[in-house]
Amino acid sequence: MEFMKMDAKALQKYKDELMRQYEDFQSQKLKYDMSRGKPCPEQLDLCADMLNLKEYKTADGIDCRNYGGIDGIPEAKQLFSNLLEADPDEIIIGGNSALNMIYDTIAGAMSFGVSAGEIPWGKLPKVKFLCPSPGYDRHFAICELFGIEMIIVDMNSDGPDMDAVERLVAEDEEVKGMICVPKYSNPSGITFSDEVVDRLARMKTKAKDFRIFWDNAYCVHDLNEQGDKLKNLFKACKETGNEDRVYVYTSTSKITFPGAGVAMMASSKANLIQIKKRISIQTIGPDKLNQLRHVKFLKSMENIKEHMKKHAMIIGPKFTAVLDILDTQLKGKEIAWWNKPNGGYFISLDTLDGCAKKVVAMSAEAGVVMTGAGATFPYGKDPRDRNIRIAPTFPSLEELTKAIKVICICIQIVSIDKLLE
Ligand code: PLP
């Protein structure tokens, strides 16, 4: 029943019962960490054979044990051009982390500018980025570190509010960038529509050196057969004459091993010339052995898709379990709203305004640690204090079931308190 339609006495009675359930969970001394979207051990086991690969020469005889190959080995570029949907000569295969590549691109833009002749962003009085929110906390942390002012843009069900984006980039030269996760977005799970992609590609920007940081971390991470399709922004930008506008990133962190995967990026040839110049000063070359191991293990795009189905078989039931519990415990009460993603790593839940922090704190007191409330917004401040990121992949099904029940109890108690205020 809708909580709003219950009178104070009925709500208080219901709360007393919920408190009993909460105390019961508290006495179980649970210790679950659901703060980050990490693969579970069964997922990591899928790639165990990759560690046995002993080869060290590429098809054209490069010895991967030695220095060199600044932008990646040819077969890695060939294979991963499918993930990035760009030509092999439009990509760089890097180290172990896409986040690291994003950081480096931003650091480069701050120190040297995004292209020859442009003023380094760090020399400008102010640099602003559009941040569709809720979004990825680590993106926001990078912006904050570099003193980039983050402007929240609402995330709609088909991507960022494009009217706001178009207006802001057209009127303000200090808006130099936008950073986002376009497919199975972290945390809202949505995929940008074709129309959003087209508008991003063709919009007029006041800053000539405006760039989109397109973090396609979940490009092949479907949870079901149909999956979502994301239109290729890089191609769309080429078609509108804005080919320098976008940097596309992804990695195998959630295909193989987080922290020991392969990261990559795609961009225009002009952008890549700038970036490669810097990389060749930063390093004598990436971990080519890891790149080769990945190519030998993952083999082809078809095989990657098959491999991702194995991941989905492991984590799909966890997503289903969370959604089922949310439905049973909260549906129709009009105190929480959540998405049903077709892929990615998260379920995003909105509570009544002003409740998220209290829910997260109360869950932690019962041993269920979630991503800090507010973390999904710039500066860690959710203006409505209502968004909670649920990361179902790491805990076992049994742990997850208990954890979500605890969260549902906390949401109900905190909501009742708010309604009784
Ligand atoms: N980008 C997004 C959107 C993520 O959710 C994550 C990890 O959770 C990363 C990047 C990290 O990627 P990597 O391990 O390649 O640095």
Automatic annotation (TrEMBL):
| Keyword hit for Nucleotide-binding | no
Q: Which CDD domains match?
A: AAT_like (cd00609)
Which keywords annotate this record? Aminotransferase, Transferase
GO molecular function: any one? L-aspartate:2-oxoglutarate aminotransferase activity
Q: Look up keyword DNA repair and say if it applies.
A: no
Show the PANTHER family listed in the entry. AMINOTRANSFERASE, PUTATIVE-RELATED, ASPARTATE AMINOTRANSFERASE
The molecule here is called: Aminotransferase class I/II-fold pyridoxal phosphate-dependent enzyme
Q: What is the lineage of its organism?
A: Bacteria, Bacillati, Bacillota, Clostridia, Lachnospirales
